[in-house]
Amino acid sequence: MDAAGSPAKDASRALLAGFSLEMTGKDIPGLDDAAALLPPGTRVNVTFLGNEDLEMRLAAARAVQAHGLVPVPHISARRLASHDALEEFLARLQEAGLSEHVFVVGGDPATPEGPYASSLDVIRTGILGDYGVREVNIAGYPEGHPDIPEAELWAALEHKTAALAEQGLASVIITQFAFDLDAVLAWIAQVRQRGIRSLIRVGTPGPAGIKRLLAFASRFGIGANAMIVRKYGFSLTNLMGTAGPEKFVAELGRRLATDPAAGEVALHFYTFGGLPATAEWVRSHGGEGS
């Protein structure tokens, strides 16, 4: 085990500085339990799920703010039934002082429920800034997407960052969670080679049951073969326990520390095992929010 103050420990702490995490509209009790463990100003993404409504999303974002944290509400393009629905959500966020940071994502429905087929469609409305948005988080896919060809993913990332820059809005890329460290690093290198300088938040699961992690990996098309998950820190032959991102974070931090071309990189935690468990893990590993 690395001693305190060792280069490996220092690299992990540097990567954990400015971490973010996410919650659903139903996670307010978990947020209440976790808040004391989170540094003031930590960014907390609030998801936009089909089984939650506007009031639930707003209540969750308000709860984040009330704890001295920074809410990052999701806007799911394909779940918006109309342009009016988009404007209503943005207006309600602005009225509550919750609109500065948003995450615009395509969303799960295969068929759009309204006029927006992609996150780029929402960005190209040009109205985000009118409602007080200053920073837009967008998705990245280091291990690809099961339904979108790689060339389309790269084109979309380039178009989104360019459109946001034209509108004077900051962009942050939050990646889908991954187990394959080599794939993540190769993807970051390609992002930078394409001239995109946005902060990248690498998605990783907080501590959770191994079966639950694998179920989410399967749902999102994430590679979970035996070699990759062993490197991540658990075995496919023992599915009863829990796993945390210790090995992934330590190695990612170590390799980024020797790669100045990678630019600004932080972590984003998917809280499959609950907000308190993730907050406790980050605190115990020296994490500081942003």
UniProtKB/TrEMBL annotation:
Tree of life domain: Bacteria
Keywords linked to the UniProt accession: FAD, Flavoprotein, Oxidoreductase
Pathway: One-carbon metabolism; tetrahydrofolate interconversion
A Pfam family recorded for this sequence: MTHFR
InterPro entries listed in its UniProt record: FAD-linked_oxidoreductase-like, Mehydrof_redctse-like
Cofactor annotation: FAD
Catalytic activity, reaction form: (6S)-5-methyl-5,6,7,8-tetrahydrofolate + NAD(+) = (6R)-5,10-methylene-5,6,7,8-tetrahydrofolate + NADH + H(+)
Keyword Flavoprotein set for record: yes
Record-stated family: Belongs to the methylenetetrahydrofolate reductase family.
Protein name stated in the entry: Methylenetetrahydrofolate reductase
Gene coding for it: metF
